[in-house]
Amino acid sequence: MFSLTTSLFTLIAALFISAQAALCVEDTRTVAQNADKVLEQTERITVSLKKMDFFRQDYSHFCTGSILSKDWILTAGHCFTDKFGIATSRIVVDAGSVHLSNLNGSRYKIAEYVIHPNQSESILIYKHDLCLVKLEEPLKFTENIQPSHLGTIEDQKEVPVLGGGWGRVSQHGSLNRKLRFQNLKTMAYDECQRIHKKRKNIVDRVFHICGYGGIGKTLCFGDSGGPLVDPSTGYQVGVFSALEDCSGEYPVLFMRVETYLDWINDVTKLNLSLN
Ligand SMILES: *[C@@H]1O[C@H](CO)[C@@H](O)[C@H](O)[C@H]1NC(C)=O
Ligand SMILES: *[C@@H]1O[C@H](CO)[C@@H](O)[C@H](O)[C@H]1NC(C)=O
Ligand SMILES: *[C@@H]1O[C@H](CO)[C@@H](O)[C@H](O)[C@H]1NC(C)=O
């Protein structure tokens, strides 16, 4: 079964895909400077969602998210699907730190969360895997805490994207102590679907963006809900939803933010627009 990115699941399959190397024609120094700037911007919009662990008497990271406004965080729906319900009082949002320990960051309680009403997890397709989390007290924007700007991406062909979070370093590894982003490339819908051919219709271009980085360069459990950013603009275009495993053999799936803008604005009463 294709697995959501907070739960642990291994799939046995041996398909190989080769990523085409991009031809680099731009001035590498300008590109590198821009890349650093976008990475910093992306870190400022990224938060860690933590749940009280009663055994440890401490909060532990369960998902990544991004800041939409001073009151609202965007993450993956499956982060909050739990048949017994998740008490909001057990959850905090850590912002303004690249460190999992929230060194020099700020911690906020949450007031409520709203999972997309049509969120569904099936072996065939993961739909509408988004959740909006409202904070109890508004975020104080600082140099290290900034809202995301949403955007669109032309992913009919391969284009670079940046995705990440505090997910595991490997399938059975521990969480990254420091926020980590991977350079990925989008993959055309039909190619992504072809690689996931054992799962008919798992990918739908309307809902999903496929991302691929190659062996050892992918996202893992705990990166769920993390932002996918267009490195040429810094705009957030996706939310990390599902993966096959943490090897990097298969493309991973992100929810396409542009498809959900109306829902986001309806729930939050924000008037966000696509850049
Ligand atoms: C944390 O804040 C202190 C005091 O402002 C500063 O000296 C230190 O360098 C900061 N550490 C990090 C990792 O940013
Ligand atoms: C959920 O699905 C129903 C039935 O297809 C549709 O009418 C409704 O608009 C959907 N809700 C959202 C928020 O997309
Ligand atoms: C919402 O944003 C659009 C464009 O950004 C603007 O034209 C419109 O006036 C805004 N509406 C409200 C109610 O603020």
Automatic annotation (TrEMBL):
Q: Which UniProt keywords apply?
A: Disulfide bond, Hydrolase, Protease, Serine protease, Signal
Q: What's the domain of life for this entry? A: Eukaryota
PROSITE patterns for the chain: TRYPSIN_DOM, TRYPSIN_HIS
Q: Which InterPro entries match?
A: Peptidase_S1, Peptidase_S1_PA, Peptidase_S1_PA_chymotrypsin, Peptidase_S1A, Trypsin_dom, TRYPSIN_HIS
Domain annotation Peptidase S1: ranges: 47-269
Tell me one GO molecular function of this protein: serine-type endopeptidase activity
How far does the signal peptide extend, from start to end residue?
Answer: 1-21
GO BP term, example: proteolysis
**PANTHER family annotated for this entry?**
FI18310P1-RELATED, POLYSERASE-RELATED
The entry's family comment says: Belongs to the peptidase S1 family.
Q: What is this protein called?
A: Peptidase S1 domain-containing protein
Originating organism:
Zophobas morio
